[in-house]
Request: fold
Amino acid sequence: MDQNRQGARASYVALSVFVALWILAPSAVRRFNREAFVEFQAPALNLLGKSRDMATFWEKKSRSVEEMAAAGRDLARINAALEIQINKFEDIRRENVRLREITRYNVPAEYMSVVARVATRDSSSWWQRIVIRKGRNDGIRPGAPVVFGNTVVGRVTAVHLTTSEVDLVTSPGFRCTAYLEGDDQNHIVLVNGVASNSLGTTKARVSVIPRDYSMPAGQPARVFTTGMGGVFPSRLMLGYLDGGTYATQVGNFKESLLVPSRDLYNLQEVSVLVPLHQNPGEALMQGDQFQ
Amino acid sequence: MGWAWLFLLLATYPWLLGADLASDTLASSSLIFFVSGTCLVAPCRRLKRWQAVLFAACLGFLFEARRPIPDGTLALSLVAIAIFLSSNRQLIRNTPSMLRVAAIVNVSACLIWFLASSYGSPSPATNLAGQLFLQLLLSCVVGTLSLIPIALTQNAVLDRLNVPPAPDTP
Reply:
């Protein structure tokens, strides 16, 4: 019995020494340790995502031929409409490039789009994240914006070999600048995630709203990215202002809550916009990617 | 057998993955299906202390790896719990006491990661008492309900590895 007690005491002492060493150890050691455990789990997460895709495939395969034919017909119509839209946008893009050249305006950052399937979602009060099945091997870099269509989903926070972690718009670690719909003077507001404290829909906070801002009547105001800072392209939609705005304690500005325009927990696929050229903000993120 | 803890970890991993899957379905409610504390209880009855320590550390690091929790907080806390449990095996002598300990350990470990995350979060902790209560309640229920199937799996693996059974009177 005494031997057991002595052993326990020795173990506690060893643990204390280890804790001290752990705190004093260079961050590279802790980073390596974290990366090793992430990579250990990566194959299982990939398998999980692939089996989910497989289940969807077989579910779709079990549908009748008539149903599929109808879906194909609908898709063909949508494709035709989209083709016209693409041509229109191509004309606008060319004109935009020409005008920028004339005015010698800075060319915005260009992005490479990497489509990735969602492997798993993870959410608590302190983080709202998704794990996607694309990583460093596919060219994804930390800090890259993640979108679905023209809607911002979040931002890549950590990149591993075959998987990446994405902080959602509502996650406390997320921050970006935005414009509000109906604000003719284009005041810049700040969007940041908040710690979730209810079982309801998670929301982000929109702060620094000017006092004289009034929301458009009859519809929720949309919130768009500004394109400043070089992380997100401009005019991507972040979501809607939830209800009204309310004055802050200081009283100089107003605040409101942001409802993401899509159900972020039902996404199956997202696009990661990897900047073709590394920007300074991204370089800063790389030192912080495991936080 | 020296590597028993590693084989046990591999055998326990599907349960952790299952918990991640359950967390995925609970994602819209911001709750996590946490079972790492429960997974630690049964091995502490049969493994040697150093093996239980390594097993606990890996359990903790596996949970922390993909989440913004300060490095080592949960892992080292689980190690301390493993040392305590493997030194006081009379506390986990029979099933009812194991169930009680599983609930306590799971809730404690959950509280540790929740508080550690709040420390590292850039967002202030306001009005989160309700959410914390819900998370702890879920951990308690999950910890108690999942102990038996997890312990059965772990004991089956330990039997195959010829690890001696836990003594009736420690």
In short: Chain A touches chain B through 48 residues (CB under 8 Å). The two ends of chain A are 44 Å apart (CA to CA). The helical segments of chain A are 2-24, 27-61, 65-103, 280-286. Residues 2-61 of chain A form one domain.
